[in-house]
UniProtKB/TrEMBL annotation:
<dbReference type="InterPro" id="IPR045584">
    <property type="entry name" value="Pilin-like"/>
</dbReference>
<dbReference type="Pfam" id="PF07963">
    <property type="entry name" value="N_methyl"/>
</dbReference>
<keyword id="KW-0812">Transmembrane</keyword>
<keyword id="KW-0472">Membrane</keyword>
<protein>
    <submittedName>
        <fullName>Prepilin-type N-terminal cleavage/methylation domain-containing protein</fullName>
    </submittedName>
</protein>
<keyword id="KW-1133">Transmembrane helix</keyword>
<dbReference type="InterPro" id="IPR012902">
    <property type="entry name" value="N_methyl_site"/>
</dbReference>
<feature type="transmembrane region" description="Helical">
    <location>
        <begin position="39"/>
        <end position="58"/>
    </location>
</feature>
Length: 203
């Protein structure tokens, strides 16, 4: 009886060992890597996410870069018009702008580049009060003493980084500064313009 019992115990013990080995084997198989199909699904999902987010990020970076470039150019134009009181040579102020020299604001930004807007690339440009500006008179320290802005031959300084022409910023009939239409290319008040999209530089 004892022998039989021990034999049965040994037999049961052997079955348990087999069961344990099967369990371990099953766990090992469940910890396998991704199949090719699963990898393709993951790659497809990542591709969709990248296709959605990357263009948006690139567009945002490009917009910020253009906004920065536009602000820099507008500040250059502002200084050309209003002068730079901090610019001195030998302790004497030399950073006079168009307004200080001519005695008024330019009627058009092309007056920053030319004294005679009836010649060359400026001839076809029309604006109110177009005139040949008085030449610089060193005795009275008055007159056009430019160019106040670098001319690229294509009047590129007239346009912001999106290709829209600058405007004077006017409120209550008072000229306050320059304005860019911003990324949408439309000034506020025009149909379809985005609110708070315009860029302004105060004089």
């Amino acid at each position: 009886m004892k022998g039989v019992s021990m034999g049965r115990c040994l037999s049961l013990t052997g079955e348990k060992k087999i069961s344990i080995m099967k369990f371990v084997s099953a766990r090992d198989s469940s910890g396998r890597g991704f199949t090719l199909v699963e990898l393709l699904v993951v790659i497809s999902v990542l591709g969709i996410l990248l296709a959605f987010f990357v263009p948006t990020m690139i567009s945002r970076v490009a917009t910020n870069a253009r906004r920065t470039a536009t602000l820099q150019e507008m500040n250059v134009l502002r200084e050309a018009i209003m002068g730079n009181p901090d610019l001195r040579v030998g302790g004497e102020a030399v950073g006079y702008g168009f307004k200080q020299d001519v005695g008024r604001l330019p009627r058009d930004l092309v007056e920053l580049a030319t004294r005679n807007p009836f010649e060359g690339i400026y001839a076809q440009r029309l604006y109110v009060g177009k005139e040949t500006l008085p030449a610089w008179d060193p005795y009275i320290q008055k007159g056009w003493n430019g160019p106040y802005i670098r001319e690229d031959g294509e009047m590129g300084y007239l346009y912001d980084a999106w290709g829209t022409e600058y405007r004077y910023w006017v409120e209550n009939n008072e000229t306050l500064g320059l304005m860019s239409a911003g990324p949408d290319g439309l000034f506020w008040g025009q149909p379809g313009a985005v609110k708070n999209d315009d860029i302004k530089v105060r004089f």
